[in-house]
Amino acid sequence: MSNIKDKLYTKIQEWRPRTINLVKNYADVVVDEVTIGKIMGGMRGLKCLITDISYLDPNEGIRYRGHTLPEVIKLLPKPEGSEMPYVEGLIYLLLMGEVPNEKEVEEMLEEFERRKTVPKYVYEVIDALPCKSHPMIMFSAAIMSMQRESQFEKYYKKGLKKEDYWDPTYEDVLNILSKLPEIAAYIYSRAYQQDKHRHSLPGVDMGANFAHMMNKDKPYDDVSRLHFIIHSDHESGNVSAHTGHLVSSSLSDIYYSLSAMLHGLAGPLHGLANQEVLRWLQSLMKQMNGAEPDEEKMKKFVWETLNSGQVIPGFGHAVLRKTDPRYTLQREFSLKHIKDDLLFKYVDVLFKVVPPILKEHGKAKNPWPNVDAQSGVIQWHYGVTEYDFYTVLFGIGRAIGISANIIWDRALGYPLERPKSLTTEMLEEIAKKAKK
Ligand code: HAX
Description:
CATH architecture of the domain at 273-381: Orthogonal Bundle
Oligomer: single chain
Largest sheet: 3 strands, antiparallel
Low-confidence stretches: none
Number of helices: 21
Number of strands: 3
Shape: globular
Mean pLDDT: 97
CATH class of the domain at 273-381: Mainly Alpha
Strand order of the largest sheet: 1-2-3
Bound molecules: N-hydroxyamidocarboxymethyldethia coenzyme *A
């Protein structure tokens, strides 16, 4: 066993009694109330999932293993001369629940290095798709094609014990995560650059390697690190994380689970919102003839969007009730590196203009910007202007958190997910009885 896997095994053994205790001794304790409103309202706020990897507070935002995002950025080791930490260190933190030291990050980097070569057939699968396919389709198909590599499936067929499920899952996770940046960069070159792909650079971390493959200079390595880190996890109830967990609960392997989660991420109310923000901003700038932002004209445009029945992309959230700290971190990065960028100026004026309008409009429970309002603008500034690609970048990050969760789901023996459904008539009956 590698040192990392060995240490993870110790952590798992230490944690297991807590799970067993809750299941054995407290299974009947009531945690939450299931109302008709919650059932009909997409289970908003219903406390019925478990993860120890991240927790989303509506007012504070996400914490990874107890740390806020600014703390994560501050605490994790960084490559020399970089503002942003190693993504590999974040993976260690999510898996172990501990901030790694330099040596532990080094071990993680080695784990990734030896696994990062993408099999040739994956490129062929991507090439076989029409180059006008959405990049998320290419991404999902590429991951699916690698299912044949699954260690979990191989050992499960041989008769793996339940308590050992986590072990080949861990191998599958590291195998696939280490390859995602190259697969994404290949999709980019295939879709937009007439196949001018640059292969992985040996001996560099994920952020630097991705910048190299995208043919971008500094600080795009830090842009990538920041992007992958802040998108990695947002507790378990969001569509992508929940989908990944649900699919994996049937003991489908990580390839099936990650491919499935991407399909949820690809929706405009979730990850695709970053693409939608750019599309919407472009039409706004077109109306303004590319001039400097003008608050009054922008207010009019926001109202026009709302009055036509559309949502303002990049604003609102199902859980958050304040500005998303992932937005704030990206804004701070932008203020430091791209503050004169016209598109960024537009985004910054929208930060001022949209929340009061959404409040006046009176529908959205949260009028503040979310992660997607900023991420595309940074990519655009550094020359990644093909906004169809942005959700793929989100997907690399999100795969990290979902994978860490799936390893722990298996380690703690979480069961097949299977809630119960009712009919409308049954709910009407329940409602009638409650009114009596
Ligand atoms: N613009 C206009 N209307 C909005 C809105 C926005 N940005 N956000 C919410 N609303 C509306 C909803 O459409 C809903 O209207 P109806 O009652 O007519 O259906 C009403 O306000 C109540 O919605 P809510 O309870 O505040 O929000 P939900 O939990 O239902 O949905 C969403 C949360 C993020 C989907 C929503 O805020 C939205 O559509 N935002 C724009 C799209 C977006 O930015 N998505 C990315 C979110 C972050 C993320 O997951 N990234 O991956």
